[in-house]
Write a structure and sequence with these properties.
alpha/beta, nine-stranded mixed sheet, 24% strand, globular, binds alpha-D-ribofuranose
């Protein structure tokens, strides 16, 4: 039977500007296009799970404004249960300034707004939703003290905890020991584990070993188009797919969503890695966060074409 997934995470509207080259400090440039997309790591991960057929609910907070309303009606359209999403009366819905250059690299500055309004009071209210979950996914775009408390709660209740430590932040040892799947990218792995370089698989393995020693059960490091490295008892590298990237925003999120859907279906780590690498590869081929999150049919067709 499919396991129940709950995503605790941020709602962020992405204001995406494209340009040939990023401006240097103190420089003004003329850009090319400006688009607005729904995004935020929590929402992106939740929608990825939903579009891949996972049984998912969302927990978080939006502002009492047009963007907040848009997010709530969007969740309805996607058939996502958002009874754990609160509306803050004063703080605005989260916003991000996203810059994308001609090489499809991005720079993102998130202004969290209402996402930081989700506190211990809201945590108490969503405990019945957490109690009903099998797998709970977290990221770091909300108050860290509240996220850490919720991770402790989920761990105590025997839930599977998936933590995508983005944006990277120091993680207390008791939280590391409560995480079943930690899913950093290479730079986040370096910051969290303290490794000084992440150029080779040996470096990545060293970072994973350090985190494993602190009690993380499985570390899934995403390596962009190279694929991912999964470390539990030993490390295994799973090759990614080479595709033409136009916008890499949300690739990590869709990877997390696909990986967790496969966990919820009881698949092997190898199968979960292939599915997640494929989903990431599809995501980078479309502009915008939410528009780039494909459904199961699309992903399975892509995997069948790229055996
Ligand atoms: O991971 C990508 C997301 O991070 C974007 O949608 C943006 O909102 C930032 O929060």
């Amino acid at each position: 039977m499919k396991k129940k997934i709950v995503v605790v995470g941020a709602f962020v509207t992405d204001l995406v500007a494209t340009m040939k080259e990023f401006p240097a400090a103190g420089e003004s440039i003329v850009g090319e296009t400006l688009n607005t997309y729904l995004g935020g790591k929590g929402v992106n991960q939740c929608v990825s799970v939903a579009r891949l057929g996972g049984d998912v609910s969302m927990i978080g907070m939006v502002g009492d404004d047009a963007y907040g309303k848009k997010f709530l009606s969007f969740m309805d359209e996607e058939g996502i249960d958002h009874r754990g999403v609160f509306v803050h009366k004063e703080l605005p819905t989260g916003l991000a300034q996203v810059q994308i250059n001609a090489s499809s690299q991005n720079r993102i500055c998130v202004i969290p707004g209402a996402n930081m309004g989700f506190g211990f009071e809201e945590e108490e209210k969503v405990k019945p939703i957490l109690d009903n979950a099998d797998i709970v996914m977290f990221q770091f775009e909300m108050r860290l003290d509240v996220i850490f408390d919720m991770i402790r709660y989920c761990h105590k209740k025997g839930k599977t905890v998936v933590l995508n430590p983005a944006p990277a932040a120091p993680i207390p040892d008791d939280i590391l020991a409560a995480v079943d799947y930690l899913t950093p990218n290479e730079t986040e792995l370096a910051k969290i584990s303290g490794i000084s370089s992440y150029d080779t698989l040996e470096d990545i393995e060293e970072g994973c070993k350090r985190l494993k020693d602190k009690g993380v059960k499985t570390i899934v490091t995403t390596l962009g188009d190279r694929g991912c490295y999964i470390y539990n008892e030993k490390g295994n590298f799973y090759k990614g797919f080479k595709v033409k990237a136009v916008d890499t925003v949300a690739a990590g999120d869709s990877f997390n969503g696909a990986f967790t859907v496969k966990l919820s279906e009881g698949s092997s780590l190898e199968e979960a890695a292939r599915y997640a690498n494929g989903m990431g590869a599809l995501t980078v081929q479309t502009k915008g966060a939410i528009p780039s999150l494909k459904n199961r049919e699309c992903l399975e067709a892509f995997l069948a074409e790229n055996k």
